[in-house]
Amino acid sequence: MLVDWQYLFLIHLLAFVIEKGETSERDVVTHIFESYDKRTRPVRNDSQATLVKIGMNIISVLDVNEQQEYIKLAVSFDNRWHDDFLTWDPAKFNGTTSIIVPADLIWTPDVTVTSTVLDTEYIVEKKDLNPEIKFTGDVRLNFAYVLSNRCEMKTDNFPFDSQECVFVMSSWSFATNRIILEHIGGQRPIQNLNSEWDIFPYTNETTDYYLEPENPRRRIIYRMKIKRKSSYYVWVIIAPTFIISSLSIAGMFAPFSSTGDREEKVSLGLTTLLTLAVILSLVTGEMPRSTNLPLLGRFVLFELSICVLSVALSIYIPHTVIVWSEEGNVALYRSFGSTDPVF
């Protein structure tokens, strides 16, 4: 009978231990949120600024809109700060050292990208984010969203151009006496899934700016460089344009006569001009609108000018030879390679 009571005691003790282990995280939440107020900054001394550490990682570049001068990309942010009111003793809660709770239960810094031009699209809705809280009060919140950031396009060297896009992160409400921003180093490798651009690692700098003379605000400026992959434009536009214009120039030196070859040369030149005009329209659709004509546009216009000159010479030279031959300049007439008499 005594043995049965011992077994019964051990079973109850084991059930108690399991129950305490299963409810330790719940007990921590009950304990730290009993008098917690998320409406105020998480410091016991109001004169103390909250240090918010931020890390940015670029997931992929989704689109580069050159006409409207903005870049659309998916990014993830790692935000870390200390909350004086979210601490506990792990020894009192079965060794629980961290918990994960919904973000709307705690104070979160209002730090965001202030250089966006369109609404930000959260990959995971903000209300569904779950920060991790350590027993020391350190909070870590990871989130990702798709943002459209203004990116001034300098296209003088298009399609061999590179662009620098600037992202600015700052707090909407707090000056440096309440929130101090600091960048976390160690960006992850960029997944370069864009077929048109090469993406390079960003650089960053931290600066202060003033909306009010006595209260500076802290911001983190990220600079990301992208370089256009020019092989498409080389093989689809530049090479065909060069070949077509070379064909037009070669046609100008073909032998001519009065039996219709002159008209064939003019027709070849006009066809070449029409082809280059179509290519120029394609280039215009690809190029961003700016005050300066890009390098590719200058190249096509140069080739177009060569073809116009070729057509003009194809008309002028035979006409001049015919006129001179009628005046007795037979030697000059023969020097241009005509095989048929013109009279």
Automatic annotation (TrEMBL):
N-terminal signal peptide: 1-23
Keywords: Membrane, Signal, Transmembrane, Transmembrane helix
Domain Neurotransmitter-gated ion-channel ligand-binding: 26-229
Cellular component GO terms, alphabetical: membrane
Ranges of residues in domain Neurotransmitter-gated ion-channel transmembrane: 237-316
Pfam families in the cross-refs: Neur_chan_LBD, Neur_chan_memb
Listed Gene3D superfamilies: Neurotransmitter-gated ion-channel ligand-binding domain, Neurotransmitter-gated ion-channel transmembrane domain
Localisation per UniProt entry: Membrane
Membrane topology, as annotated: Multi-pass membrane protein
Spans traversing the lipid bilayer: 232-254, 266-283, 295-317
GO molecular function annotation: extracellular ligand-gated monoatomic ion channel activity; transmembrane signaling receptor activity
The name this protein goes by in its record: Neurotransmitter-gated ion-channel ligand-binding domain-containing protein
